[in-house]
Design goal:
The structure is a single chain. The chain is of the alpha/beta class. It folds into two domains: 2-53 and 190-264, Rossmann fold (3-Layer(aba) Sandwich); 83-187, HAD superfamily/HAD-like (Rossmann fold), CATH 3.40.50.1000. It has eight helices and 16 strands. The strands form four sheets. The protein has a seven-stranded mixed sheet. It has a five-stranded parallel sheet with strand order 8-7-9-10-13, sandwiched between helices. Helix 5 links the parallel strand 9 (124-127) and strand 10. The radius of gyration is 18 Å and the shape is globular. It starts with a strand and ends in a 10-residue tail after the last strand.
Length: 265
């Protein structure tokens, strides 16, 4: 374990935010210690949320997927970039209109926030994750943005995992649309600290007593740091020990996996 001198300790933390892929699960299998960590939070009455940039699934879907991996996480303890995006847009323009490229996680969140989903004179073009990006839909999005619709993206991730290997994700498609329109999207998901602030509001957390666990320096750790949280990098996912020195910032703690965190809380 590596820790930053003078940092808050896990024993000081009252609320926990954690990434999902690479921290709790890997390819639909629970990572060692994940189930025990969740149970420890429950047993000690710690407030926690599982955060994900994945906008494909609803919290109910994700809770079911986690359950099949052996992790019991109630849907109310899951916060997605789709939920954060819907919350942001509701605050910006209640009852607005949006042309959406995405799946149920995003469309459901926007519907429940009071948005009208339409391809006729929308206020926003909202780009999320999908495994079936349509050239026709992308072309429609480009034309609507050129006509004045504001461009929103759920997350910046350029690629996503699949059994066959990496596949284009929201960030890559956003770059295509940006190139065609000369308009950059406002991106809600990690590493935008807004994703963290919206999550913290859900559990009435304060930055001084909240921690973020993640497996990526370029999303989880930088966003947690910018939101003023205690940051814990686990080496069970994307970022490895040799990668840390490439970044001009450091996590408060670096652990092999969440299993190493359990004795500290």
């Amino acid at each position: 374990m590596v820790a930053v001198e003078g940092a808050r300790t896990p024993a000081d933390i009252e609320c926990w935010l954690t990434d999902m892929d690479g921290v709790l699960v890997h390819e639909n299998h629970a990572i060692t210690g994940a189930a025990e960590l969740i149970q420890r939070w429950v047993d000690t009455s710690k407030r926690f949320l599982v955060l994900t940039n994945n906008s494909i699934f609803t919290p109910r879907d994700l809770a079911a997927r986690l359950r099949s991996s052996g992790l019991e996480v109630p849907e109310e303890n899951i916060w997605t970039s789709a939920l954060a995006t819907a919350q942001f847009l509701k605050a910006q323009m209640p009852g607005g209109r949006a042309f959406v490229i995405g799946e149920a996680g995003l469309t459901t969140a926007l519907h429940e926030s009071g948005f009208i989903l339409t391809d006729q004179d929308p206020d926003y073009v909202v780009l999320g994750e999908t495994r079936t990006y349509s050239f026709e839909a992308i072309t429609k999005a480009i034309r609507l943005i050129l006509e004045g619709a504001r461009f929103i993206s759920t997350n910046p991730d350029p690629t996503g995992p699949s059994k066959e290997g990496p596949m284009p994700a929201t960030g890559a498609i956003a770059a295509l649309i940006s190139k065609a329109t000369n308009r950059e999207p406002y991106t809600i998901g990690k590493p935008n600290p807004m994703m963290f602030r919206s999550a913290m509001n859900q559990i009435e957390a304060h930055s001084e007593t909240t921690a973020m666990i993640g497996d990526r320096m370029d999303t989880d750790i930088i966003a947690g740091m910018e939101a003023g949280l205690h940051t814990v990098l686990v080496l069970s996912g994307i970022t490895q020990q040799e990668h840390i020195s490439r970044f001009p910032f450091r996590p408060n703690q670096t652990l092999n996996s969440v299993a190493d965190l359990i004795p500290q809380i």
